[in-house]
Design a protein that fits this description.
The chain has 48 helices and 24 strands. It is α/β, with parallel strands linked by helices and 1498 residues long.
């Protein structure tokens, strides 16, 4: 008290006396200086930091508004008032009135601080700060201090009269009013600044224009919540992404930092390698070893971590400060509760003290909420920025990856990087501080518990140590089951993907039942692992929740039983309980934090490894712009390889292509034709020599690459629209007839991966894109392969040939089409990666070398006596010409139009939006109650009732345990001891054990009920999808179906049961808290009703809006991943056209659009948490006030029971709403899974009537048969009446769209008849089950389909044949030697879609599969199109021999392959045009003869 005496003089009042006075107050002279100096000290401490912040943050200039003027006027009056106090006291002292130094110091310090506040107000205006948190807090503290001084003055006036010190009374009243005015003014927002660099978008985020109070409570977000609760939200209702969060700012910054950190690391590694190599004498090999060693020792994540720290380190540290302050308030609450319970126990304590403690707990809770939510807000904003940075870096990396790097990362892995791995790093931002703060929290808890219970507190450590092995065993065992489950889930996903991708083949072969059984088998194993995992999860949850009870029980039991004089009163019991809750939270948070850190480290390494992959050398292909260069393309002594590890694929290439010439590149499969184009594009590594292109380049790959965009956007490819040129290009590429049939013409949207277009349409769109670019050099990788002969001829004449649109351009055409070679300027013949011969067509023939031998072998194989000129090469998509221009058969425009008109996939009339396929529905409203009912019915009504009963029993036991503890703490103390201690301990233990068992029962019931529901829903989904007709799969993108089987089923498997468990647990917990508060402190019941109403309102606003935001955000993620996938697949085309920047901008805009939806969702969570915790704090306040008011009738134990329960309500309210929101969001998955239950289905697979041996002959009869793909469309077949004899070989031909494939589809009932019937051996196939029908017919489709699995499984999926049979089939299809040379032979693993086999090999495998079935009816749909002609002839001969007793229908685009059939069926516009032997049809000179003419065979 020495300082007090120096300030106050000799007079002193004891603090103890003041604290226990019936009227609160400080010593008479300390009330003013002590209280007044608190806000002053705050502002002077904050000033240097805040001023530096203002100096570095210029947001413009705010004009002198009315608000600013009012602030300055009130501030000047306050300064005058403070100094008038000083001058008046100086005058009083001169008059001999004694005044202590405190009276001079306090107003002087206040006046100077007011001047500082006015100075900061002016600086804020000049720097464009519209609302100030620092000054608002200062004025708030000043107002609280003023209120304290005012109450002191009023008390003094009541004691001694107003006139005794009237001047100071008046100034105090004025001061308080003026400070209140300043406080109100600083709660307001000033006008927007001029000259601001910020975005002036009128729809900008309201956070920027909201007050400080609105910012810290997130009330600026309430407008969007209100709108979302009243109407469905759209993207336009949301604010554009803030500039500081945009990709433009973040990714550019990240690129700079990444390059700096990476170059720094490379310099260190380079110097280390140099030093190491100096010590060795083994040359290059040793240096390579050193480099590998360095890479293993130095983590690749180092540069990435440094980049994160340099970008976000300061921001994260400030967030951490908020969390530390939050923890200070967290641990202050038990201390205040302890004082409050002492107050309840002390009947002599003044009443105001209880109210003070009550409001202190409320204030501490509110401050804890504000700091915690601000920490979460900053972490989430930081997470979004981190995601933006990493997504941008990954996307930019895709565009520069070398071919070696592309082998290291697939599309799925890259998508995982930006979805899963980036999310792990975002989680780490929130959890990282838990790794060091949680141990500190635990230590503080034990210190406080030691103060309460002494050494007994250490028993908690023993409990945790005992529980540790149990939790470790449970976690380890559960992780094993989860690994097993994930393994089966991956298998199921892989198999499901294969089924959906190849559903047409599965239906053609009647394999639905077999593949469903395979899926069921895997699913059964998956659910078995899930059940065991869920039971262990229930045990781990019980272990976690019971740890609170066990710690409490052991500590209290040891404390009371060891020494009879140890009394367990309310203070010890319920303060300890509060601390134990904090301890348990910290203890549970620590493993999550460590787990998040471990997972993030793995993700960090994965991202760093990807970003460090090898990049393309930009100098691999030189671009020469010199006008003096005559050659359009030059390669000088070039040797190229795909990667450093592989041998050269092109060797000693010397090539010069004159400008404006057409060069054809031909050769056998794997000769290096595509590699030559890749070398010209700079996609290969040049180990020797160089390649140079003159001017710009355009590239058409062999596999057509199209964007998920409109046809127009695909063709323009970033160029401006030139209507005239666009029309010329689309006409030349034979696209005009297609555009006429598309629902929105050229604006029609192409589906993902071109799913809505045929192969020919995709190729023509890709070609049109290249032509539209008007580049100098065109590199074309066999673009005619996917086209019919006459369409290909049209395109060659109008685009590629001597009179085409590109006649003046340099063209390099890789082709298998030999018939166009006479019209090209030069030919390059490749053999094993080397140029064997080069020259014109005639020159190469005259040389009689390798090219001539190659040519003549094909001519001899295809020569037919009736054909004037042979059709050489793979004529699928071939332009067939004669020996010279005089023998050309040019196609008319009408011919091309009819050829391509029906190539498109049929489109329903309701597709007016320009899209072919059904868009995935975005959920806007909340799901109906029917969906919830469907889920509960799938789980089982009996199980649902048992679950509710078990939750009720468990919560009753929890209430009983708490009530018993309050009775124990309220036991009277006799002779220094409590009676019945052993009874209390025993019953308390029994109630805890029963509650743990009840918790296990109710948790296991919910989780196992979820597994049961999941099993039922999956069976319904799989059965429904497999029984859907082909039309369903054509309309529904595979991605949508895969989403149902993977993401949606995962939600049904694990997420929904977990969230339902949480909702029920928190709901019953909330009911228990309400019951305790009402029973213990009845007056608090008055507050429960309005607080519950507010809670319901907050929940309504939040849930309706949050669900919409989450659905919109989820929908906005798909375009990002699709764009990444498209870019990865088409990166060579993008680079060739120099469109990298446009694609980067598109990616950035998609990411920003996703962030635009993520940010409101994150703020909505903070809004909910802040407001619900305020409500919970309000309930704590009312419970404490009620206890203080009725303390004479209330025991301390009952008060402690009530308030300790009330302190838990903030978390319970918060998590209950969040859990319910998660249920609402995820229950949509149930709706989506059930969505396909009501779609149309195919006929049954098997009918009751048993077929004997059928068919016996293979006789087929069409009777007035008509077929229509969809109501409202034209019939694909009209009145077909045809009779085919058993064992007959029939060729089916006609132009594209004539109905050839439709005939096969009708025969297999992929589409049901619109009219008429089909009979096989006299049996109407409409009366048969689909499985019975399709298993008796063998189809070899045009596109070979293989499944991921062994070669044996692909040949014999039903496992019906011996190995000997399979080897025989392989020998017949010329695959025996190839398979015998494989290491695993028949067990050789085929990759997805058989990508590790060539197209020709896949087609031969499909032929071998057909040989094993040996059906009476065989349908060949261009089955040998992918093999060379020599193999084709041998295969055709083999098929005739093996299927001589079968009826064979051969669907052919090329007439030459069906000339040896018994009869030929010619279709036109869905009708039978001709049906006779080849000789008669040629003699008739009808449609078949014209087709032969167009193919050069007549």
């Amino acid at each position: 008290m020495g300082a007090g005496r120096a300030l106050c003089g000799t007079r002193d009042t004891g603090w103890n006396q003041t604290w226990h006075a019936h009227v609160p107050g400080l010593p008479w002279c300390l009330d003013s200086p002590t209280i007044a100096c608190i806000p002053c000290a705050y502002l002077w401490i904050s000033f240097p930091f805040y001023y530096c912040y203002l100096r570095h943050r210029n947001q413009g200039y705010i004009r002198m508004s009315c608000i600013f003027k009012a602030k300055m006027v009130l501030g000047l009056i306050l300064v005058i008032l403070c100094f008038s106090d000083v001058f008046f006291m100086v005058w009083e002292k001169s008059q001999g009135i004694p005044r202590t130094p405190a009276f001079f110091i306090s107003p002087a310090v206040q006046g100077i601080t007011m001047v500082l506040a006015l100075f900061l107000t002016q600086v804020e205006r000049m720097r464009g700060i519209r609302t100030s948190g620092v000054l608002l807090i200062y004025w708030l503290l000043s107002f609280v201090a003023a209120l304290v001084m005012l109450s002191s003055k009023i008390q003094r006036a009541l004691e001694k009269g107003f006139l005794e010190d009237h001047f100071h009374h008046v100034t105090t009243y004025l001061y308080t009013g003026l400070v209140l005015g300043q406080l109100v003014l600083f709660c307001l927002v000033d006008h927007p600044p001029f000259f601001s660099k910020a975005d002036n978008n009128p729809n900008q985020c309201p956070e920027a224009s909201s007050s400080f109070l609105s910012k810290i409570t997130y009330w600026w977000f309430s407008g969007l919540l209100w709108k979302g609760s009243q109407q469905p939200l759209g993207v336009d209702d949301l604010w554009p992404v803030r500039k500081q969060d945009s990709s433009e700012e973040i990714v550019a910054w990240a690129e700079r930092e990444w390059k700096k950190c990476q170059s720094r690391t490379q310099q260190k590694m380079g110097s280390a390698t140099f030093k190491k190599s100096q010590k060795t004498e083994t040359g290059i090999a040793e240096a390579e070893e050193t480099e590998a060693l360095l890479q293993s020792k130095h983590s690749q994540s180092g540069p990435l971590l440094r980049m994160f720290w340099s970008m976000f380190g300061t921001y994260f540290l400030l967030s951490t400060v908020c969390l530390v302050i939050c923890d200070v308030f967290l641990f202050s609450t038990p201390r205040v509760l302890r004082l409050f319970l002492k107050f309840i126990e002390d009947e002599a304590a003044p009443s105001w003290l209880g109210y003070f403690y009550a409001f202190s707990m409320f204030l501490l809770g509110c401050l804890q909420t504000l700091f915690e939510q601000h920490y979460m807000y900053r972490c989430l904003v930081l997470g979004l920025r981190l995601r933006t940075a990493l997504t941008g870096l990954v996307y930019r990396k895709i565009l520069v990856m070398s071919n070696a790097s592309r082998k290291e990362a697939t599309t799925g892995e890259i998508v995982n990087l930006v979805s899963v791995d980036v999310q792990k790093l975002m989680d780490l931002i929130i959890y990282f501080n838990g790794t060091w703060l949680a141990p500190i929290r635990i230590i503080i808890c034990f210190v406080f518990l030691w103060q309460l219970l002494g050494p007994s507190a250490l028993t908690a450590i023993a409990v945790f140590l005992l529980l540790l092995p149990l939790n470790f065993v449970i976690t380890k065992k559960r992780s094993q089951f989860q690994e097993i489950q994930m393994k089966h889930k991956d298998e199921r996903a892989k198999l499901t993907n294969a089924i959906l991708s190849n559903i047409k083949v599965i239906k053609l072969y009647g394999w639905e039942k077999t593949f469903m059984e395979k899926v069921h088998k895997i699913r059964k194993q998956e659910l078995q692992a899930l059940k065991r995992s869920q039971i262990l999860f229930s045990a781990s949850l019980v272990s976690f929740h019971s740890s609170t009870f066990l710690v409490t029980f052991v500590m209290f039991a040891v404390y009371t039983l060891v020494d009879n004089t140890h009394v367990l009163d309310a203070e010890k019991a319920f303060v300890s309980l509060t601390l134990i809750n904090i301890l348990n939270t910290a203890h549970s948070f620590l493993p999550f934090s460590i787990n998040a850190a471990v997972q993030a480290r793995v993700s960090l390494n994965r991202l760093a490894a990807f970003l460090s992959l090898e990049e393309l050398n930009p100098e691999s292909s030189g671009k020469n712009t010199s006008a003096r260069v005559q050659a359009g393309i030059t390669i000088r002594n070039g040797t190229f390889c795909w990667s450093k590890e592989t041998s050269p694929c092109l060797r000693s290439i010397d090539l010069s292509v004159a400008q404006g010439s057409l060069l054809a590149v031909v050769g056998q499969v794997a000769a290096g034709k595509s590699s030559l184009l890749a070398a010209l594009l700079g996609e290969l590594q040049a180990t020797h020599g160089s390649a140079t292109l003159q001017g710009t380049a355009a590239y058409v790959p062999q596999q057509a690459w199209v964007l998920n965009a409109s046809v127009e956007d695909n063709i323009l490819f970033g160029k401006e629209m030139d209507e005239t040129w666009f029309n010329r290009v689309t006409e030349a590429c034979a696209l005009l007839p297609d555009l006429e049939t598309f629902p929105a013409g050229q604006k029609s949207e192409i589906g993902e991966k071109g799913i809505t277009l045929s192969g020919g349409q995709k190729q023509r769109v890709a070609l049109a894109r290249a032509v539209y670019q008007q580049a100098s050099v065109y590199l074309l990788d066999d673009p005619l392969a996917a086209l019919d002969a006459h369409v290909g001829q049209h395109i060659f004449e109008h685009v590629l040939g001597p009179s085409g649109l590109l006649r003046d351009k340099t063209r390099v055409l890789v082709t298998h089409t030999i018939n166009i070679l006479p019209q090209v300027d030069n030919i390059v013949f490749l053999v094993d990666g080397m140029i064997s011969e080069t020259g014109s067509y005639q020159e190469l023939l005259q040389k009689n070398g390798a090219f001539a031998e190659f040519l003549h072998s094909h001519v001899s194989e295809e020569e037919k006596p009736r054909a004037g000129v042979p059709a050489m090469g793979d004529t699928k998509g071939t332009v067939t010409t004669g020996n010279g221009p005089s023998q050309e058969k040019p196609l008319s425009g009408e011919s091309v139009k009819s050829a391509v008109r029906k190539e498109t996939i049929p489109v329903s009339q309701d597709c007016t939006s320009g899209g072919f396929s059904k868009a995935e529905r975005t959920q806007h409203s909340r799901v109906s109650a029917g969906v919830h009912r469907a889920y509960l019915q799938a789980a089982g009504p009996a199980l649902c009732v048992c679950t509710i009963l078990s939750f009720t029993c468990q919560q009753v036991l929890a209430f009983s345990r708490g009530y018993w503890l309050s009775l124990w703490a309220g036991d009277p103390v006799l002779n220094g001891t409590q009676q019945h201690t052993q009874l209390r301990v025993t019953v308390f233990a029994a109630l805890g054990v029963l509650q743990a068992l009840g918790r296990f029962a109710c948790t296991a019931a919910v989780l196992l009920g979820g597994v049961s529901a999941s099993q039922q829903l999956f069976l319904q989904l799989l059965s429904s999808v497999m029984r859907s007709p082909m039309l369903f799969f054509e309309q529904t993108p595979t991605g949508h179906l895969l989403n149902r089987f993977s993401r949606d089923m995962d939600a049904v498997d694990s997420v929904i049961p977990d969230k339902v468990k949480s909702v029920l647990g928190f709901l019953f917990n909330l009911l228990e808290i309400y019951l305790v508060i009402v029973v213990a402190t009845p007056w608090a019941a008055v507050a429960i009703v309005p607080l519950t109403v507010l809670y319901a309102a907050f929940q309504h606003f939040y849930v309706s809006t949050s669900c919409q935001l989450r659905h919109m955000e989820a929908a906005s993620r798909s375009p990002i991943y699709s764009h990444i996938s498209e870019t990865f697949q088409g990166s060579s085309v993008i680079r060739a056209h120099k469109e990298q920047q446009r694609f980067i901008s598109r990616s950035d805009s998609l990411v920003d659009e996703n962030q635009r939806l993520c940010f409101p969702g994150a703020v909505a969570d903070r809004w909910l948490a802040t407001n619900l915790e305020f409500l919970g704090n309000g309930l704590v306040l009312f419970a404490a006030l009620s206890a203080a008011l009725s303390r004479t009738q209330l025991s301390p134990a009952a008060a402690g029971f009530s308030i300790s329960c009330a302190l838990q309500i903030t978390g319970v309210l918060n998590w209950m709403v969040r859990s319910w929101t998660d249920v609402e969001n995820n229950i949509v998955s149930v709706e989506r899974v059930r969505e396909y239950l009501s779609t149309p289905k195919e006929a049954p697979g098997t009918l009751s009537s048993k077929l004997q041996v059928w068919p016996t002959e293979g006789r087929i009869e069409f009777r007035n048969y008509s077929l229509c793909y969809r109501p409202g469309l034209e019939s694909a077949l009209r009145g077909v009446t045809v009779s085919i004899n058993g064992h007959e070989k029939i060729g089916i031909t006609g132009r594209t769209g004539a109905g050839k494939s439709s005939l096969a589809a009708g025969l297999l009932r992929l589409v049901e008849a619109a009219e008429g019937s089909i009979l096989i051996d006299g049996q109407d196939i409409a009366q048969l089950g689909l499985h019975d029908l399709r298993t008796k017919i063998t189809v070899i489709p045009q596109d070979p389909v293989l499944f991921s699995g062994s070669l044996r499984m692909n040949l014999d999926p039903l496992n019906q044949h011996t190995d000997a049979d399979i080897w025989t089939a392989l020998e017949l299809t010329q695959l025996k030697n190839f398979v015998a040379d494989l290491p695993e032979q028949l067990e050789y693993k085929c990759t997805d879609q058989g990508e590790n086999l060539s197209t020709g090999q896949k087609q031969l495998v499909c032929l071998a599969r057909a040989l094993l079935r040996k059906a009476k009816i065989l349908i060949l749909d261009e089955a040998t199109a992918a093999v060379d002609l020599e193999t084709d002839v041998q295969i055709q001969s083999m098929l005739r021999a093996q299927f001589r007793d079968s009826t064979v229908l051969t669907i052919a685009h090329r007439v030459s392959s069906i000339l040896d059939c018994d009869r030929i069926l010619v279709l036109e516009n869905g009708r039978v045009a001709e049906f006779d032997t080849p000789e008669h049809l040629i003699a008739q000179k009808g449609l078949f003869y014209r087709l032969m003419e167009e193919s050069g065979l007549a």
